[in-house]
Amino acid sequence: MKSSKTPRLSRRRFVGGTAAAAAVAGFPAIVRAQSAPIKVGILHPVTGPLAPSGQQCRAGAIMAIEAINAAGGIASLRGAKLEAVLADAQSKPDVGAAEVEKLHEAGVAAIVGPFASGIALATTQAAAKHNLPHIVDVGVVDQVVTRGLTNTFRFGPGISRIVDVAIENLVTLNDQAGKPAKTVMIVHEESAFGTGMAKTLNDRLPGKGFEILETISHANPTRDFGNIALKVKGRNPDILIPSSYYNEFVLLSRTLRQQRIRPKAVYAILGGAASQYRFVKEFPEAAEYIMDCNHWFDARNPEALALKKKTEDKGLFYSYEVFLNHECVRLLADAIQRAASADRAAITKALAESNWSKHFMPYGPTKFVNGQNTGAAPVNTQILQGDIKVIFPANFANAKPVFPAPQG
Amino acid sequence: MLELSILLPAILNGLTTGAVYALVALGLTLIYGVLHIINFAHGSLLMLALYLVFFLHALAGIDPYLALPIAVPAFFVIGYALQRLVIGRASHGKDENILLVTLGLSVVIENLALYLWRSDTRTIETPYSFDTVNLGVAFVPVPKVVAFFGALIVAGLLWLLMTRTDLGRAIRALAKERHGAKLVGINVDHVFAMSFGIGCACLGAAACLLLPGYYVSPQVGHSFVLVAFTVVVLGGMGSFIGALLGGLIIGVTESVGGLFLGESLGQLAIFVIFIAILLFRPTGLLGQKA
Lengths: 408, 290
Description:
Chain A is α/β, with parallel strands linked by helices.
């Protein structure tokens, strides 16, 4: 046994250790220079039939996160950066719900997504189990915000509001042209979004003096609209109202043109491609005169236009999926900033009290009632001469509507 | 709704769709009807063929119709190899085993496709994709017209093969009497594999004719395989003309049924007709009495 005359802890070591400890205790900023990044779940259907939209959504969300981080992150949390945790709902509600569980386990502070109504119903429910705040980027069906889930916040408008505005504008359009239209036919995709739209239209249109001849649903994906086009031809409605996702809307429009079927107006409500630059660019003849009531940005706002340029420089089209997701992420950042915390409950509270006006949507400051941003509203567009023009409301309009569409 | 201007285009649409169903069923009827091999991998193989044609177009710019000389031999080889090396070996000659082996194969192929190419639906654009043939009463899309005549030609070629060539005779002999065929010196394994190969070659042709007006995704085979089986049994097992007729009947039924009953219920009409024909003519339309 060695006698330890020299203590293990020499005096030098002791002094050195104390000095180091003092430095750590006294100068926390040096050691904890950067706060831990705040994880944000970005959940969209980037594969499957909804992939075109899902990928646009994801691009918009990531651009916002990059911009926020480049501008210094969350100031109230010492410049903490946002970190995107990407998830793929594969265009299926059950997969979306499973991804929410994974995001919860990854420790995200909030979720933004998941684009589709059917998927949103599942993901918000799954997120509610963990009190995880969930900002719904698009998901327009009414049930998203009528189930009493306190974790759910929808920045954009829902079907009820959209249909109200759409019908109001349709009546105005018809009146202004001398009421040439009386009959309507509805073609909608068969999941929650399209079915919800069709039901709401069936409830409200007859009361405004329009007769609904027929309501047809189609599957996702559908690659042959031959029969549906024939039915439209047979019934010969004055106005056709389609509500579909991108691919199917494009195919329906092209099939109608191919079969020489021209109603007085194709008045889409949330038409999947009816206000999409990609559609206008790829198929200008099929797209001409199509009207849409859809999400749109305030074209007078320079930030919106700057993002449009940035998006197009990346080789992407500036679609509603991009700008809605971009603004939803910024909405979240504003909430985190005011909560000064990455805690889920704090963020949820901050969102509920949100009064954010620094966005570029035509909404006014945010105000959430039961999870719905009450100021949110759609805009009416028409594709004229290869460009998407706003025709209603008057204070955002930059073109006069062409109605009825020229026959021939 | 019953006006000719609506009904006639629907019937024409149905005929063209039916021709494609017939083409898919032709391969199946050769494999199923003649060899009594229940090929559950038929839909997945069609899906693979569609992907082949898709990638030939997307990566090499080859028009789908011009891809016929590539897709048909390629799938003949794939079919031959599959039967010779996988199905034939794994089944040890028992029919029940073949069912499971082909089912397993279809699961493997489908999930491999899902892994490699994701579940997005892919389509191609060709200059003639949306051109129509103006028949006065209807505008029929060009790809569908080509598919219709293509299917007829393939059916005719198959019939010639089966009736005029030695291979065809060998296949028919093998189907009728396996042991007898062996005794007269027919190489059973080789002829089985040739039949499977020819059946798959039909899928290659079907894919080239189908892609311009349709789409491909890993799940696309499902919608075809069920209809194909229906067509095979409806037409009479082993009869090519029967498969052709059956395909056309199913196509028209689906189209007209969809027009009157809605897209989903239209599918019901197919199976109602199917049951009706089997009730009154169990061997199918042109099948031989057992």
